[in-house]
Amino acid sequence: MRVEDGERGMIISVASGKGGTGKTTVAVGLALSLNDVQFLDCDVEEPNAHLFLHPRITETSPAFIPIPDIVEAQCDYCGKCQEVCAFNSIAVLKNPETRKGSVLVFDHLCHGCGACCILCPRGAVRERLKEIGIVQKGSARNLSFVHGRLNIGEVMSPPLIRQVKKAMTPGRTIIIDAPPGTTCPVIEAVKGSDFCILVTEPTPFGLNDLALAVDVLKTLRIPLGIVLNRSDIGDDSIAAYARENNIPLLMSIPFDREIAVAYSRGVPMVDVKKNYVPLFRNLFERIRKAT
Amino acid sequence: MKQIVVISGKGGTGKTILTACFAVLADRKVLVDCDVDAADLHLLLHPVNREHHEFKSSQVAEIQPARCSRCGLCIDLCRFDAIESDFVVDPISCEGCGLCSRICPVDAVSMKDRVSGEWFVSDTRYGPFVHARLGIAEANSGKLVTLIRQTAKEIAVRDNLDYVIIDGPPGIGCPVMASLADTDLALVVTEPTVAGIHDLSRIIDVTHRFQTSAGVVINKFDLNLSKSGEIERLCGSSGVDIMGKIPFSAQVPRSLVKGVPFVELFRDPVAAEITSVWKKAAAAAGPQE
How far apart are CA A243 and CA A224, in angstroms? Predict the structure, then answer.
């Protein structure tokens, strides 16, 4: 993924722990302040960046996960697949008298590990592909755009996030808008980043969830910095936390009704507050020097 | 006993603030925080932990280097790229499927139980509270949600309580579905923004799929009246009731900083609207049997 120094692209992810702190606002603001960026919206459960960037979509492709498909003609209902499935997604029912039975597959529990298929003694488990969502590519203003949309009713977002990230072009500056939280979808989104920006707000909720997100990034050994959004609405606990933990506070964005209203209408903050463009460029330079 | 879940699709719309107010307003209830990866409700309810449990739900592979013949079969077959080229398992990528331990020709891989988090039963001024903390970079949040909801339900039955009030996670994925299953009412908190509306329409589809009756609360509705109108039209056409429109208030972050549920600290139009939302939600969840 890495190209020689000088021409090396950089992958910057924007995450938060707590939802609604301004990840998309910051990711979009940063992307629009730079040139030749590839933007990836990896919040596949609730992708929002397209609402601000209005990309022209040029390519839509389905994303699949493999799930077991039982070939009943070859199955003797021995129960091996049920035994090896760590996720309880297969149940084998057998009538001991007739030696007939049936196999139930619970798609939503399946992680696609392939154990049932590989370990079936009779080759009676095949895999079929099930669509879980779509990946769309396109362009918006000066950047190229990729996002994923998980189908309603699907639970496995990490495989779709992996598909979105396959579209990354090595050597370019890549900005990833991550989902909220601290578990599998977030890890899938930020994994492999050169730097992660954590967006938070100065409240006890913001602080609590920031600290969780910092732990995740430290576990993944990803360098990080903080952007404090609505920096004047609460207390000064985030600044104190950043100092104590030696984490750079990269930027503060005070609450501004004009930004909030622009956001509500789907207008990027840098369109209504042009003074943030050089601030985002500075932020980018600081990150580049730090990595 | 009725179960009411507060969800939103989009994060940061005010789920937890509203749930904490319900903790004050509802009688005879147990509270559950199902946002197990970034739980915040405890910051307003100040629980005293009574029970502490480890959450063990999965396993992780471990390779014994002395036995390993470095044949590479496990690396080839692992779908999660969890085994590095030096035959060390990356516990973050390992999903615990156990395939490697079953196919290893020299029996060098064993599966170990992993503690993926912890969960608590606590006392608060407002009643019993069940909450959890998923470990750093752990998975299985859906299972943990199901476990703490089951515990809360048992407490409600045991103590003959009227409500299980659930603070849900953002999104539409695994932990959201586990929070939503088998509830009497899903209260969806949204905001009048393009992102709020987009995510609202997706989460309403999820509630329809679960055949859960849903109600909507528009938070900060006066930040964009035309978007609030759009939400009302969307709800009208989806057959979902609007249960309240809460005005923007700079006091809300102050209540967070003080660590107190909003309705306990302020008696203003915002608090009045939240009180009215609770009454409507309780009515919509149906009469107690």
Answer: 13
> Mapping DSSP to helix (H, G, I), strand (E, B) and coil, where does residue B27 land?
coil
How far is the C-alpha of B183 from the C-alpha of B1, rounded, in Å? 10
Q: What class has domain B2-46+125-285? A: alpha beta
B11 close contact with A: CB closer than 8 A:
yes
The pLDDT value given to residue A8: 65
Beta strands in A30-142 (DSSP E): 37-41, 56-70, 90-94, 101-105, 125-140
Q: Which residues of B touch A212 (CB under 8 A)?
A: 37-38, 136
The CATH number fitting domain B58-115, selected from 3.40.50.300, 3.10.590.10, 3.40.50.150, 3.30.70.20: 3.30.70.20
Residue ranges covered by each domain of chain B: 2-46+125-285, 58-115
* Rounded-to-integer distance, Cα A210 and Cα A191, Å: 18
- What is d(CA B58, CA A56) in angstroms, rounded to the nearest whole number? 43
Of B212, B118, B219, B134, the residue nearest B175 (C-alpha): B134
State pLDDT tens for residues B51-93.
999 999 889 999 999 999 999 999 999 999 999 999 999 998 9
Cβ contact (<8 Å) for A118 and B99?
yes
Torsion from C-alpha of B224, B229, B230, B232, nearest 10 degrees: 130
Alpha-carbon distances of B67 from B62, B70, B96, B104, rounded to whole Å: 12, 9, 20, 10
Report the gap between the CA of B160 and the closest CA in chain A (Å).
32
Q: What angle do CA B182, B185, B190 make, to 5 degrees?
A: 120
Strands A90-94 and A101-105: antiparallel
Please indicate if any CB of chain A lies within 8 Å of the CB of B199: yes
Q: Is the dihedral of CA B67, B72, B75, B78 positive or negative?
A: negative
- Chain B residues touching residue A16 (CB < 8 angstroms): 11
Overall residue count recorded for chain B in this entry? 289
* SS3 of residue B31 by DSSP: strand
Please write the tens of the pLDDT for every residue from B246-263: 999 999 999 999 999 999
Query: How far does Cα A47 stand from its chain's mean position?
Result: 10
CA count, 13 A, side-chain hemisphere, B1: 19
Count the Cβ atoms, other than its own, within 10 Å of residue A168: 17
Report ipTM for this prediction.
0.91
- Alpha helix stretches (DSSP H) within B84-213: 99-103, 141-158, 174-180, 194-209
Asked if the Cβ–Cβ distance from A152 to B169 is below 8 Å, we say: no
Gap between the Cα atoms of A139 and A39, Å rounded: 9
Residues constituting chain A: 291
Which candidate from A19, A219, A261 shows the least CB-CB separation from B11? A19
DSSP secondary structure code for residue B178 in this structure:
H
CB-defined contacts A:B, below 8 A: 181
Contact A158, A65 (CB under 8 A): no
Domains in chain A and their CATH numbers?
A: 11-64+133-290 (3.40.50.300), 72-123 (3.30.70)
